[in-house]
Every structure is written in C-alpha cells, then in structure tokens.
Amino acid sequence: PNIKPTVFIIFGGTGDLNARKLSPALYNLFLDGWLPDQFAIIGTGRTRLTDEEFRTKLLADLNQFSRNGKARKEDWEKFAPHIFYQVADVKTPAAYEQFSQRIAAFEEDWKVPANVIYYLAVAPEFFPIIATGIAQRHPEDDPTRVRIVIEKPFGHDLESARALNKLLAQHFQECQIYRIDHYLGKETVQNIMAFRFANAIMEPLWNRNSIEHVQISVTEQLGVGERTGYYDNSGALRDMIQNHLLQLLCLVAMDPPVNFTADEVRNRKVDVLRAMRRFKPEDVREAAVRGQYAAGWLEGKKVPGYREEKGANPASNTETFAAVKFFVDNWRWQGVPFYVRTGKRLHRSASIISIQFKDVPHIIFPAETGESWQQNRLIISIQPEMSIRLQVQAKRPGLDMMLNTVDMVFDYQGTYAAEAPEAYETLLLDAMLGDQTLFMRGDQVEEAWDLIMPILNAWQGRPSLSFPNYSADSWGPELAEALIARDGFHWFTLP
Ligand code: BG6
C-alpha cells in the first residue's frame, strides 16, 4: 500500500506496552515490508536515555517479545537507525516544541511532509494534557496528517469518558482519533465479520428464530500480578466487559453494514449497544455476578489470592470475575439471552463465543439412539485455539442407529501456513493507513459505559461480603454457573 512517510511518537516509550506490543509490532511490520521507506519512531518518557540506550533496550524487548523470536542482526541493523528517543516532561510546552522540531527535521531530510502518529501508551490521567499539548503544535493542520492513538482505559465511567471525548473533540476531528480496543485487531475477531457477511448460509439462521442463546467467555489463567495499582480501581467489568466483551457481542449481534467502511461498520455496532436493555438498580442482582479469586494452585504453582497480590488493598472490593446476562431489544434478538463472563486465575485461558441453536422441533429417533441429545452449536474460538466449529449430530458407525455429536472444524493452523499477525500489527498499520474500522468511535465507548453503569454503581455501593469467592483453577464463583443454569444452560468450554 501507499503509506506516506510517517513519524511515530510513542508516549510511554520506556513502558511495558511499548516493550511487549508496540515495538515488536512495528518491527514485524518493518520485516514484512509494510512500513514506508521514510519512517521514524520517537520513544518518549521521563527517563533520560540516549538514542543508543533506547535502541539497546528495544532490542532486548524484541528478542523477548517478538512473535518472530530473536531479531536477526542484519534486520535489526536496518531497523535501528529509524529509532530515536526524546526525554520529555509532557506537562511542559517545551516537550511538544521539541517534537515539532524533530518532525520538521525529518521532513526537511525526507523532502516531503510526514504523517504524524502520536501514540498515548501512558496512564489515563495524562491523556488530556498530552492531547492538548499536541493540538497546540498542530493548530490548523490537515486532519488526515496528524493522528492520535489512545490506549485503554478510555474513561473510568460514563462521565469521565464523555469528558475525555469532549476534550478530544475540542482539538481533533473524529477521523484523527484512534481509540484502541486491541481485541478488534485479533485475526479471529476480524474473521467474525468475514464469516457472517461473506457467507450467505448463516444470515437466515442468525436471529431469534433459530438461535437460543449466545455465550461470550474470556477466561484467563493469569492473575493481576503487578498491575494492582491500575486494576484495583478498575475490576473485570471495566477492564474487560466494557470494551473487549461488548465489542465481541456487537460483532455477533450487528446487522450487516452496507459496506466495509469504518463508519458503516461502526454505525451497525453502535446500534447494538443502543438496543441493549438497560438495567434498573434492582435488576443487577439477578443479571450480574461478581467474583474475586482466593489463593490456590494453578498449573502446579501456588498462587496468591487477589487481596494478597503485591500492592493490593487487603480488604479490596474489586471484582476479578464478572458474568452478566444481557438482552438486545431489537427485531433480530428479542428474547435471546447473551451471557458474557470473564475472569482471572481461572482453570484455563480461552476466549470463546458459543452460539447455541434451537432444538429440532420434533425428535423422530427413539430414545435409545443416544444418551445426550445436543443442540447445534457454533463455536468461534478466538484464542488460544483459533477455529470455528459447528457441532452437529451424526450417526455413529455401526449396525444400530446411534447418534452422537461431532464437530465440523475450520482451524487456522490446519488451513493456513502463515502465522497470524499480532493484533497490534494490524492496528498500527490501520492507523498509518487512516482506516478506523477496527477502532472505537466516541459514541460506541459512551454507549458501552452507559450500559454497564448500573452494575458498576450497584457493586460499588454494596461491598461484597463473600469475597474472595472463587479459588484459583476454578471456573469462577458458583453463582456464575447459577446465572446461566437458571435458564437451563451451562457455560460451554472446549474439551
Ligand atoms: C487487557 C486487560 O485489555 O486485556 C488485561 O487490561 C487482560 O487485564 C488483557 O489480561 C487480555 O488480553 P489478551 O490479548 O491477552 O486476551
């Protein structure tokens, strides 16, 4: 593609996200020939570092975190000269002045105007000040030239998300603002749209007539670890459901957009969020379950409880597990429950969407044909297994008529030789290309906050007396099973 010469300015250059995700992604894009010939990456932070010191750090990070393993010397030597470091105190105008000078120098060198991507991989309290600082250096700029990428969390609640959107709108046009939800960059997540909208056979079934219920489950073995400083003010509902799980839900529930452009796709997604049934305070107990992990054993290792994690409040009321039953009140989905759950320190790490179809209207086979009649189920497995499975009933080979459930499987590994790119590769490339399809629009973020506010308020206002209420290596609190069992279903897990 034709990508203009680009300067990346990464705030939080010495931080964890840059080390683990951004730099490895840029490096892999470089290796695969996706970066323009003229590009520069300027890391910035409060630590004083020379360009050379910063390069050495990034090389060590790459060697540890890149999906391609250790960097080859000859590749790194071509990449390294594009990397720079600028110490900066983002609270001072001088910082932005320095960036401008650097950008101007590159442009002079390259003899063309450059696109500039400011990437805010910093704590959210810095978003307003940095956004304002940047805007003051690019007052009447061509809006397609300057872009600002904002990491999560986008707001702490509805009010703060609105305030941040408002502040950004004072300085930038929406087409310049790239709000990250890294789940949208995942290969298997993008494929939900391909699967639904490039195949004709699904659409006639994709509604309340055929679908009984939908489950979206993102479970993690990982604990909160060193992130308690952030996590204790967040919790599973904010950290995962407000963004990642609701975005997955939108991809399952959205109507077909008229075309695959950013705003058409995002219009249909925001329609879903707007159609989702709002909870009254008295509904929360019935519709949502929270949990917090206790100490236990996981994969043969003793792991601390959440309240014992480094830096955690020993009486913390923060949930590390959340399950919610949602409804989408529109023609397509009326009456179909969408169960979502997510949690840390669970038995297995797996992100799965399970779509359960209704039962056959009448069973013609005698009862002896199989002990368990199952309904058809479509399973979109996002990670670590990357697959789509359709569960159907089949006759077991033999002289009698015995039925059992079998999977028709499309799996990435067996189908494609190439390794899937990391989500951040896709998203950084899209930001360079100016394609916002896989980024959150301001109204989407606000609708998602609006939807979960009653749950947040109920939980904050009523400390849980049962915490910790699930042990490491379990599937979460018992009430989460009860939430779905009440309706006659079970949480689905892959064998
Ligand atoms: C992040 C959350 O957004 O997503 C983390 O802040 C979580 O708490 C992570 O662990 C999960 O992402 P992935 O890509 O590992 O599924």
TrEMBL record:
<dbReference type="GO" id="GO:0005829">
    <property type="term" value="C:cytosol"/>
</dbReference>
<dbReference type="GO" id="GO:0009051">
    <property type="term" value="P:pentose-phosphate shunt, oxidative branch"/>
</dbReference>
<dbReference type="InterPro" id="IPR022674">
    <property type="entry name" value="G6P_DH_NAD-bd"/>
</dbReference>
<dbReference type="InterPro" id="IPR022675">
    <property type="entry name" value="G6P_DH_C"/>
</dbReference>
<feature type="binding site">
    <location>
        <position position="344"/>
    </location>
    <ligand>
        <name>substrate</name>
    </ligand>
</feature>
<comment type="function">
    <text>Catalyzes the oxidation of glucose 6-phosphate to 6-phosphogluconolactone.</text>
</comment>
<feature type="domain" description="Glucose-6-phosphate dehydrogenase NAD-binding">
    <location>
        <begin position="9"/>
        <end position="191"/>
    </location>
</feature>
<keyword id="KW-0560">Oxidoreductase</keyword>
<keyword id="KW-0313">Glucose metabolism</keyword>
<feature type="binding site">
    <location>
        <position position="220"/>
    </location>
    <ligand>
        <name>substrate</name>
    </ligand>
</feature>
<dbReference type="Pfam" id="PF00479">
    <property type="entry name" value="G6PD_N"/>
</dbReference>
<feature type="binding site">
    <location>
        <begin position="89"/>
        <end position="90"/>
    </location>
    <ligand>
        <name>NADP(+)</name>
    </ligand>
</feature>
<feature type="binding site">
    <location>
        <position position="239"/>
    </location>
    <ligand>
        <name>substrate</name>
    </ligand>
</feature>
<keyword id="KW-0521">NADP</keyword>
<feature type="binding site">
    <location>
        <position position="182"/>
    </location>
    <ligand>
        <name>substrate</name>
    </ligand>
</feature>
<keyword id="KW-0119">Carbohydrate metabolism</keyword>
<dbReference type="InterPro" id="IPR001282">
    <property type="entry name" value="G6P_DH"/>
</dbReference>
<feature type="binding site">
    <location>
        <position position="46"/>
    </location>
    <ligand>
        <name>NADP(+)</name>
    </ligand>
</feature>
<dbReference type="InterPro" id="IPR019796">
    <property type="entry name" value="G6P_DH_AS"/>
</dbReference>
<feature type="binding site">
    <location>
        <position position="152"/>
    </location>
    <ligand>
        <name>NADP(+)</name>
    </ligand>
</feature>
<dbReference type="Pfam" id="PF02781">
    <property type="entry name" value="G6PD_C"/>
</dbReference>
<dbReference type="GO" id="GO:0006006">
    <property type="term" value="P:glucose metabolic process"/>
</dbReference>
<comment type="pathway">
    <text>Carbohydrate degradation; pentose phosphate pathway; D-ribulose 5-phosphate from D-glucose 6-phosphate (oxidative stage): step 1/3.</text>
</comment>
<feature type="binding site">
    <location>
        <position position="186"/>
    </location>
    <ligand>
        <name>substrate</name>
    </ligand>
</feature>
<feature type="domain" description="Glucose-6-phosphate dehydrogenase C-terminal">
    <location>
        <begin position="193"/>
        <end position="491"/>
    </location>
</feature>
<dbReference type="InterPro" id="IPR036291">
    <property type="entry name" value="NAD(P)-bd_dom_sf"/>
</dbReference>
<feature type="active site" description="Proton acceptor">
    <location>
        <position position="244"/>
    </location>
</feature>
<comment type="similarity">
    <text>Belongs to the glucose-6-phosphate dehydrogenase family.</text>
</comment>
<dbReference type="GO" id="GO:0050661">
    <property type="term" value="F:NADP binding"/>
</dbReference>
<protein>
    <recommendedName>
        <fullName>Glucose-6-phosphate 1-dehydrogenase</fullName>
        <ecNumber>1.1.1.49</ecNumber>
    </recommendedName>
</protein>
<dbReference type="GO" id="GO:0004345">
    <property type="term" value="F:glucose-6-phosphate dehydrogenase activity"/>
</dbReference>
